[in-house]
Structures are given as C-alpha cells and as structure tokens.
Design goal:
With 460 residues, the protein is an all-alpha fold. The protein folds into three domains: 177 residues, MFS general substrate transporter like domains (Growth Hormone, Chain: A, Up-down Bundle); 51 residues; 213 residues, Up-down Bundle (Growth Hormone, Chain: A), CATH 1.20.1250. The two termini are 36 Å apart. The mean pLDDT is 84.
C-alpha cells in the first residue's frame, strides 16, 4: 500500500523537474514564446494549488481509494494528451488536466497512509519513506527528462507516466483499502471559485504584464481582479461554518509564518529551476541531459539534507533549520548574482549545492510550524493550506522570474540572458534573508502567545 502511494508521489513530483529540463526543446518544436513556457509550468501548479483542499475533502466524503484512482486516471490521460499536444496552447490545457488528477493523488495518498498505519511509530516511518521519495524524484527527474529528451524527444517525458499510472490504478484496487472520514467537511464551492480567480489573475498579470504593458487595461484589470478576489475570499470565508480556508488560522504567528515561508521558498525554487534550465541550455549550449546532470548537485543536497532537517525540528525546534535554510538560499542566490555566459562550472556547482542545502532545510519546518498548536481536528486543514502555499509559491516564482528578467516579453533568450537573471537572483537573496528573519519571529514568545490565543477559538 505504501509503495502504491509513493508511486503517485514519484510521478507527480518528478513531473515538475522533468518538464523544466525539456522547456527549451518544447519551445523550439512548438515555436513557443517564453511566456508560453511559463504557462506550461504554471498552469499545472496553479490548478494543483487551487484544488488540493477540495480534493482532500472530496476524498473524505466519497472514499479515499476511489478519489485516488480517479486522480491516477486523470493524470495518466493528461500525460498522454500532453505527449501529443500540437501546440503550446494545447499543451497548457492538457497540463491542467494532469494537475486535476495530481490534486487527487498526493494529499489523498497521505490521508490513506495516515488512516492505514494505526501505530504512531509505523506511521512515522511511512511518512519518512514518503518524504524520501520527494528527494529521489527531484534527483532522478532532471536526468530522466534530459536523457529522454535527448534520445527520444520531449514527448517521451509524458509517455513514461502512462504505464506507471495504469500499474498504480490496478495495484490500488488490489492493495489499498477504502476509507472515509467519519464526519467529512462540507464542500465550499464559492470559496473554491474565489481561490481559483485570485491565483489565476495574480499569476496571469505577472506573466502577461511585460507583453501587454504594465499600464495596459488588461494587466491592471488582472491585478485589480486579484485584489478584489482576495478581499472577497476573506469576507466569504469568515461567514462560513466550515470554510475552505479558516481565516482564523492566520491569527497564529507560526501558521502565518509557515505560509509566508512556503510561498517565498518554493517561489525561489520555481525560479531556480526555470531560469537554470534556460541558462544552461540556451546560454551555455548544453544538451538537456547535460543540463540535468549539472543541476543534480542541488537535488542531491536537498535529498541528503531533508531528513536532517526533520531530526533538527524534532530535537531543537524550527528556528535552527529555518535559519540554516535562509542562509543556504541566500548564499546560493548571492553566488548566482555574479554569473555570465562564461562562469566556471565549479562556481555554478557551489551555488547549486548551497541552494539545494537551503531548500532541503526548509520543508520540515514549514509543515511543523503550520500545525504548531493547532487542535488535532484542524491540523489536517492547516497542513493543506501549507501545501497549497507551496504550489502557489512555485507559480509565483516562475511568473516573477520571466517578468524580472524580461524574458516574458521576448520570443527567445540570448547570450545576455545570464546578466538579465541577476535581478531575480538578488530577489532570491532577499528571500533567504526573509526566511532567516521568519525563523526568529515564528519561534518567539509573541508567536507562542498567539498560538495560545487561537487554539481555543478553533477548538470551539
């Protein structure tokens, strides 16, 4: 059962790094602009972020195994459609189909694991295996994507999901027990719709702003609509008995800190993967496989450090790993602010290792801080908001990377692209500094008092 759940996590997690490596090849074959490539990534992460909480509550209501199988089916169909996409527009649409399926897989698989492993120690081991799969998928993704793109073509990166998905569907039927929540949460279609509008208009404005013009009616309209949706979301969710997002969570300083950290850290990672895929191939002239090989040190650092981060959180709390995470991301970004078309590869490897170290340190504190002090009945919802924040961060990072470098406004990148990325790397430096600051704020005495004030309200 654990192996089946980990299969779903593996293909969904690997899909992000696989596609990043293949972006230049996709752009050349489908004659895509850079903004089209941004949408190839962001259409997936936006839909995933928007539907994670809905999928979790749906699974609690109609059955976790059933929802999981539907998700696997949709993801496999979406992958097959992506592999035959005739244009970048259709590829973006099919990526959204993939994401609908993906949103039903990872959070639901975690619910299945939690419901199946009754013993706390066994559950902890299972969750540890689950977390390790993320690191493995990040390490394998660029190599698999690069090798397939070089040898067969970029469409093969989607073909490999289909047999894995079919096998997982059959194995789920054979080995995964059906389960439901004893008291499932009510659906919140209005809140769900507002979340989709908010995320789509915010990211859309960032991606299309350089092309449409920042002062154009279209760009300003998108940002105004995003602001209205955000205000409306707070008003609507405060009045619901069982809201999609309980806005009272944000009165807790640790919870708010976890959301901020998730958005900025995963935003930095989204920008890191997107910009380096373009830089290594379009500026340094590498093949997709070579690019995947050179980014492997970042993935390995993340994979090795993630378990250490979890142990640090358990032994000394979240402050130390968050500070270390911020220092790593800051250091990696600082080195990358110096790159040009001829930067020695050892300098790049040093930057990649530093960034991977920082990113590996940040994940365990995010989850722990999100549920810190929450009543048991609310911990799942709090963790779901943190997961949504991660995917939202990736979307914003990719959108911001194209906007800041000016790549969104042009059809392709040239030799001066390396220097154009410096502005984004300075933003990453700022993100690292912000994570260090959050490490101190989220573990302060004021933060602990805010948890004490919020917990009774949520219990009630």
């Amino acid at each position: 059962m654990l192996a089946v759940c980990c299969m779903s996590l593996f293909i969904v997690s690997m899909d992000a790094t696989v596609v990043n490596v293949a972006l230049p090849s996709i752009g050349r074959e489908l004659h895509s602009t850079i903004s089209g490539l941004q949408w190839t990534i962001d259409a997936y992460t936006l839909v995933l972020a928007s539907l994670l909480m809905l999928s979790g509550s749906t699974a609690d209501r109609i059955g976790r195994r059933r929802t999981f199988q539907i998700g696997l089916t949709l993801f496999s169909i979406g992958s097959l459609l992506c592999s035959i996409a005739p244009s970048v527009g259709w590829l973006v649409v099919f990526r959204m189909v993939q994401a609908v399926g993906g949103s039903m897989m990872n959070p639901v698989a975690m619910s299945i694991i939690t419901a199946t492993f009754d013993d706390a120690k066994e559950r902890a081991k299972a969750v540890g295996v689950w977390g390790a799969v993320v690191g493995v998928s990040m390490g394998v993704g660029p190599l698999v994507g690069g090798a397939l793109t070089d040898s067969v073509g970029w469409r093969a990166i989607f073909w490999i999901n289909v047999p894995i998905g079919i096998a997982a569907i059959v194995l789920t039927f054979l080995f995964v027990p059906e389960s439901r929540a004893s008291k499932p949460r009510r659906l919140d279609p209005l809140g769900q719709g507002i979340v989709i509008v908010f995320l789509a208009t915010l990211v859309g404005g960032l991606i299309e702003g350089p092309r449409l013009g920042w002062a154009s009616v279209g760009t300003l309209g998108l940002f105004v609509l995003a602001a209205v949706a955000l205000v409306l979301l707070v008003v609507v969710e405060r009045r619901r008995e069982e809201p999609l997002i309980d806005v009272r969570f944000f009165r807790s300083i640790p919870f708010s800190s976890s959301v901020v950290t998730a958005v900025v850290a995963f935003g930095a990672n989204g920008a890191f993967l997107f910009l380096n895929a373009l830089y290594l191939q379009e500026v340094r002239g590498m093949t997709p496989f070579q690019a995947g090989l050179w980014t492997l040190p970042a993935a390995l650092a993340t994979m090795l450090v993630s378990p250490l981060s979890g142990r640090l959180v358990a032994s000394v709390g979240t402050r130390v790993p968050l500070v270390l995470a911020g220092i790593g991301i800051l250091g990696g970004g600082l080195v990358l602010t110096t790159i040009d078309a001829h930067t020695p590869m050892l300098v790049l490897v040093a930057a990649f290792v530093l960034f991977g170290f920082g990113f590996g340190m940040v994940n365990a504190p995010i989850t722990n801080t999100a549920v810190s002090g929450m009543p048991r009945a609310q911990a799942g919802s709090a963790a779901a908001v943190a997961s949504t924040s991660r995917q939202t961060g990736v979307s914003l990072g990719v959108a911001l990377a194209g906007t800041v470098t000016g790549a969104s406004a042009v059809a392709s990148v040239g030799a001066d692209f390396a220097v154009a990325t410096h502005a984004m790397w300075w933003i990453v430096v700022g993100i690292g500094a912000a994570i260090v600051a959050v490490g101190f704020v989220s573990s302060s005495a004021a933060a602990r008092r805010s948890v004490d004030r919020v917990a009774p309200l949520l219990d009630a």
